[in-house]
Structure formats: C-alpha cells, structure tokens
C-alpha cells in the first residue's frame, strides 16, 4: 500500500529504491557526521532534547540537578580544607572541642528537620549561599528593576563603588534577618526564597551582584511569603519595614519578578528537600553547626508518641493492602518473618 521510504541505504544499492532522475547521479547520502562534503540527515531523536534533560539543567525545577550555590562554594571549601589541614599539622595542641557528642549520660539531638527547620541556622545558611553567589559570580548581568542605584531602598546616598564592593556575609545576614523578624516569616520561607532566586538566575540569565542583591532578595522574600505562608505579608507591610520604599515600587518589582519566573512559583517537595539538605552540607563545609539540644524526658515522650502514631498508621495501611490483595477463598494466614538487623 503506497510507497515506502527506507532510511537505511546500503553501499551496493537497493532494488526497491526508484531510479534517480538525470542530474542527481552524484548525490550521496552520508551517515558520517564528521564528513562535511555531503549532507547529513540527522535523526529526530538527535534533534530533540528530552524534557527530563531540560529540567535537570535547572535545579529549582528538578530534584536531580545539583544546586548552583553548592557548586559555587566548592572552590572556597577546598581552600578552607587545605588551610585547616595545614593549621592542624602545624599546631601541637588540638584546642577545645566545639562540636557536641552524645555520651552514655547525655544524648544530643538535632532540633532542625526538613519539615521544621531551625530558623536562625536556616537564615545563616541561605545568606551564606547568597554570599557565594555574589562572590563567585560569572558576570554582572542585571536589570534596572533590581539596580539599587536606580531604585534605592533608602534615602541614604548610594556609594559610588556600590557595584564593585562585594557585601560580607554578616551584612547579608542582617538584612535578611531584619525582614524575617519584622514580618515574622518561617524558616521554610527562607528555603523557598533561595529556590526562587536560583530560578530567577536560570530563567532570566542574570547574576546576583553587589548592585542588585538587596532588591533581588527582597523580591524573592516577598513572593515566597505570599506563596508559602497562610497569612501573607502585604506589600505595604514591607514599606513599613523599609521606610523609604514605596508601594508602587514593590508592586512593580513583584510583577516583573513573576514575569521573569514565567509565573512558575511551584516548588515540588523533592526540590525543597534537596535545597534543605544542600544547605546542611553547606553548613558543614563552613563550620556552621545546627543547634544540638540534650534529650530530656519531655522530648523523649513526644518522640515516642510520634513513633507510635507512625507505626500504627503503617500497620493500618499494611492491613488494608493485604485485604485488597486476597484473591482466594480459605486462604491461610500470611506468615511474617522477623527482620534481623546486623
């Protein structure tokens, strides 16, 4: 039925191929990519980029892609490890131990979890990630809406070298901590803020630099507080925190921020968890320890109650799945073997 088109051409020719018209005797189909003398018919699978590979290039959308801030911090981390090794070898006395360890009498537990991160430690890690973004940036690509010289956040005169002097980590931390404290934002909101920042850098092809970091961080916090928190902070509330900024400026920045994000404000749970654990890795590399609290009787009872609740829920789900799987009458009860932990 109809003509058939074959993409496989042998060197000896095929009897099924129609006779070539005059003038096309010298036309050859080449399958060698490196041969520039003849045309190359590329397969459709080579021309199209799979969606998964496209998503993996953006860490704010795909959980398998590595975060940008962690890769930017690796250079400084290697230098710090080398310096610490040299200092450790040169010093005779190790000095006091700063890290807490559990013993037979006292058990220390981490107060920060992926569902309930510690606020102070999370803000420190997020601002440290922003610091590495600025310090190890590739260029100074920015937009006028985020330029602090063109749209200042205060009436104080912006220094002439505002675009050349990198801010210290303490300065970024104080700026973000002031906003979170005044607006009463949560630690989860700080992680979502970092996700929006890296999504903005990828979508808009921008860089966080000394000239725009304050307004970019403010726009990300503004958007994250509205998406994450149930009781969002209004734009006019930020104008009360930053006295010299206008509501019109906040509205315009929010609108352009959303347009640059292509209105993609969704943060999957897998992406959120990846950013949380990468922030913890960043904290370990920079000696920023999350708070360890001793396990008391009240905390132990709460953990035991949570464990029992999860165990009962798992048993109910297991029974329901077994009831749905029964397909024979008078089935003998299923035997369960105890797990052996080595």
Q: Could you give a short description of this structure?
A:
This protein is an all-alpha fold and 342 residues long.
Counting DSSP E segments of at least 2 residues, the number of strands comes to 2
Average pLDDT over all residues: 76
Number of helices: 12
Q: Specify the oligomeric state.
A: single chain
Strand arrangement, major sheet:
1-2
What's the helix-strand series?
Answer: HHHHEHHHHHHHEH
Strand content: under 5%
Structural class: mainly alpha
Helix content: 40-55%
Outline: globular
Largest sheet: 2 strands, antiparallel
Q: Regions with pLDDT < 50 over 5+ consecutive residues?
A: 4-18, 23-40, 42-55, 88-97
Describe the structure.
This protein is mainly alpha-helical and 342 residues long. 48% of the residues lie in helices and 2% in strands. The protein has helices at 44-47, 51-56, 68-72, 74-90, 119-135, 169-183, 187-204, 213-228, 235-241, 247-260, 269-285, 297-325, and strands at residues 108-110, 292-294. Strands 1-2 form a two-stranded antiparallel ribbon. Helix 5 (119-135) packs parallel to helix 7, helix 5 (119-135) crosses helix 11 (269-285) and helix 7 (187-204) crosses helix 11 (269-285).
């Amino acid at each position: 039925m109809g003509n058939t088109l074959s993409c496989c051409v042998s060197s000896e020719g095929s009897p099924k191929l129609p006779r070539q018209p005059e003038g096309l005797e010298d036309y050859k189909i080449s399958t060698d990519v490196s041969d520039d003398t003849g045309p190359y018919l590329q397969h459709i699978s080579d021309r199209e980029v799979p969606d998964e590979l496209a998503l993996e290039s953006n860490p704010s959308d795909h959980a398998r892609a590595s975060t940008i801030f962690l890769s930017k911090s690796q250079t400084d981390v290697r230098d710090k490890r080398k310096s610490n090794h040299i200092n450790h070898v040169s010093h005779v006395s190790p000095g006091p131990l700063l890290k807490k360890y559990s013993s037979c009498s006292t058990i220390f537990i981490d107060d920060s979890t992926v569902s309930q991160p510690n606020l102070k430690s999370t803000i420190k890690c997020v601002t440290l990630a922003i610091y590495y973004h600025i310090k190890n940036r590739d260029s100074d690509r920015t937009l006028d809406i985020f330029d602090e010289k063109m749209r200042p956040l205060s009436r104080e005169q912006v220094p002439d070298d505002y675009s050349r002097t990198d801010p210290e980590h303490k300065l970024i931390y104080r700026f973000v901590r002031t906003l979170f404290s005044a607006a009463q934002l949560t630690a989860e909101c700080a992680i979502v803020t970092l996700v929006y920042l890296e999504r903005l850098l990828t979508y808009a092809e921008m860089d966080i630099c000394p000239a725009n970091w304050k307004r970019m961080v403010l726009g990300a916090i503004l958007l994250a507080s509205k998406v994450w928190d149930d009781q969002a902070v209004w734009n006019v509330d930020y104008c009360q925190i930053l006295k010299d900024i206008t509501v019109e400026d906040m509205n315009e920045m929010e609108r352009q921020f959303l347009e640059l994000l292509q209105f993609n404000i969704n943060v999957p749970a897998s992406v959120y968890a990846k950013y949380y654990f990468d922030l913890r890795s960043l904290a370990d590399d920079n000696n920023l320890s999350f708070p360890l609290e001793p396990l008391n009787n009240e905390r132990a009872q709460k953990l035991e109650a949570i464990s029992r609740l999860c165990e009962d829920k798992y048993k109910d789900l297991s029974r329901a799945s077994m009831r749905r799987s029964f397909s024979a009458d008078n089935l003998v009860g299923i035997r369960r073997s105890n797990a052996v932990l080595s």
